[in-house]
Amino acid sequence: MARPKDPHARSALLAAARREFVVHGIGRARIEDITQACGLSKGAFYLHFESKEALFRELVEALLLVFEGLRVDRQRAYQGLIASAGGQGELDPDSGFLERLSALDAREDRRLLELLWEWRDVTDVLLRGTQGTEFEGVVWQVLDLEATRVRDECQALQRVRLMRPDVSGDLVGLMIVGTYLLVARRFSQATERPDFEQLVQELHQVMAQGMSPRPAPKKTKQRRISP
């Protein structure tokens, strides 16, 4: 009779493997080190996974599933917001639409940042430790999807006259995706959980207002009162 699989052993192997992959990458990570790190045998490993690549594939598939859920949720929320405001022609900037849009973006950006933080070890391996493996192009596929999402959102805003028509949605997508790529890299090196609210606020301020200093208020001349 075959030994039953221990679900606790599976989760322990996944956790230990995540640590090993970060340190050694997929190529140099060893099953012996993974099992030793969680006090299990190689036999226990093979009860759950046929190889270290199969284990990492499961991690990647879980990450992609969560990411896809966030992307679809955001697309639907964006489409619903624009449709609720009419969806065609010029929208009134004073209608409250921009405030609702800003709140939507802040909420979804925070969810994405939290995803990058929770999966910072796996994203780190995808960024720098998958050379020559089947996972080498995964991160770029994800980034292409995000850049396309941003481009589509920009085009939707341009159609309702809430974004300059001379700004390329493709370029905006590349800029935003590049920012999140570097944020993911920094997360992998961080030792403390970041303040997501502050980070989202700063990102939105840079995107909305740029980096130029605000002009100083004009000084008003004081009228001289004759005695």
Quick summary of this structure?
With 227 residues, this protein is an all-alpha fold. The protein has helices at 7-28, 31-37, 42-48, 52-84, 97-118, 120-128, 138-159, 169-189, 196-209.
Can you characterise this structure?
The chain has 227 residues and is mostly helical. The chain has helices spanning 7-28, 31-37, 42-48, 52-84, 97-118, 120-128, 138-159, 169-189, 196-209. The chain folds into 2 domains: 7-48, Orthogonal Bundle (Arc Repressor Mutant, subunit A); 57-209, no CATH class. The chain contains 9 helices and no strands. Helix 1 packs across helix 4 and helix 5 crosses helix 9.
- End-to-end separation in angstroms reads 109 Å
Total count of helical runs of at least 4 residues: 9
Write down the overall geometry: elongated
| SSE-based structural type | mainly alpha
Return Rg in Å. Answer: 24 Å
